[in-house]
Q: What sequence folds into this?
């Protein structure tokens, strides 16, 4: 069913990647649509949101495990990543290939164009069997893992309540869940009461069915979520180059993005998820969670692929992140005026 190594560190966090991908990143300066373009470089990384989270977490700390679906025919790069970063592999192997996504990076404009495939298709009875296999893995890893991270899209034809079912299974063991999904998977998943969410502002707007026009409306939306979902402890809302907002039941904070040399935005949101979970594993207060999550994201922006520099460098970046009470930032006239 799954492949594990004989000697592994104690598992403290599990990343579930139901729809991983091999990310082919192609650097094309001054990309022109519909024209012949000359690429400067290319690389292929084991990716997909759950794999990206695990990769960034493993660069910072030990005790990371991963589960999800992998196609046997092109599993090598995933297994190489897991081995190099000491990520314990509890993946479910299926026939065929894991999807391959293409990322076109234009460093001249600072733009990334994603071309993502849907993922591996399975028959309904096989899907249900794999969900039951995932439950068994959750039951096993919950013996030591305190956090489970559910990230990304669902493969074709998987039930929209898949994340909700996994969350309930994790909660039955008294463990905590961070959910980073979108659309119907997020709408169903939140009904199972995850403990933390990391939507971007567009995913949050879609979840609530209303437009969000800035930090004030985002804060109002998150307050509605916290009121409706009593188990929800923390919500981080990423806003791209404008930074991120972090909420608990008692605090609302704005974290200003760090000025770094942009190489690729691919996986920046996943790095923020990894940083948030790393902070939660250390029981840090919300302000420190905001700093570490922002530092993870900034560090990843400087690299192709979901990789971070050494932990000391990440902690240095975290120490330089500016965090303000949201009310103070709004009173000062917005994100660009504070500081």
A:
């Amino acid at each position: 069913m799954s492949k594990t190594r004989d000697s592994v560190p104690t598992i403290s966090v599990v990343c579930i990647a139901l729809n991983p991908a091999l990310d082919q990143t192609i650097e094309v300066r001054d990309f022109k649509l519909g024209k012949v373009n000359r690429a400067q470089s290319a690389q292929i990384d084991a990716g997909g949101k759950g794999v990206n989270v695990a990769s960034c977490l493993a660069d910072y700390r030990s005790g990371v495990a991963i589960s999800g679906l992998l196609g046997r025919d092109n599993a090598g790069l995933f297994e190489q990543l897991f081995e190099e970063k000491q990520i314990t592999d509890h993946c479910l192997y299926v026939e065929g290939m894991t999807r391959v996504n293409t990322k076109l990076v234009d460093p001249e404009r600072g733009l990334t164009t994603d071309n993502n495939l849907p993922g591996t298709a399975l028959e309904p009875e096989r899907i249900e069997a794999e969900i039951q296999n995932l439950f068994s893995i959750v039951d096993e890893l919950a013996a030591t893992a305190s956090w489970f991270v559910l990230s990304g899209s669902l493969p074709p034809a998987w039930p929209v309540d898949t994340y909700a079912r996994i969350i309930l299974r994790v909660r039955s063991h008294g463990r905590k869940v961070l959910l980073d999904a979108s659309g119907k998977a997020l709408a169903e998943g939140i009904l199972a009461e995850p403990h933390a969410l990391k939507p971007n502002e567009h995913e949050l707007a879609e979840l609530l069915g209303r437009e969000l026009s800035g930090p004030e409306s985002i804060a109002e939306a998150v307050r509605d979520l916290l009121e409706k979902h009593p188990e929800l402890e923390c919500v981080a809302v990423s806003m791209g180059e404008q930074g991120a907002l972090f909420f608990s039941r008692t605090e609302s904070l704005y974290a200003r993005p760090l000025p770094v040399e942009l190489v690729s935005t691919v996986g920046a949101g996943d790095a923020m998820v990894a940083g948030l979970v790393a902070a939660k594993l250390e029981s840090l207060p919300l302000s420190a969670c905001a700093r570490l999550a922002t530092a993870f994201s900034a560090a990843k922006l400087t690299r192709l692929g979901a990789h971070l520099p050494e932990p000391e460098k990440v902690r240095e970046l975290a120490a330089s992140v500016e965090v303000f009470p949201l009310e103070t930032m709004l009173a000062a006239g917005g994100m660009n005026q504070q500081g």
Summary: The two ends are 53 Å apart (CA to CA). Confidence is low (pLDDT under 50) at residues 1-6. The chain is about 35% helix and 20% strand. The first strand starts at residue 13 and ends at 17.
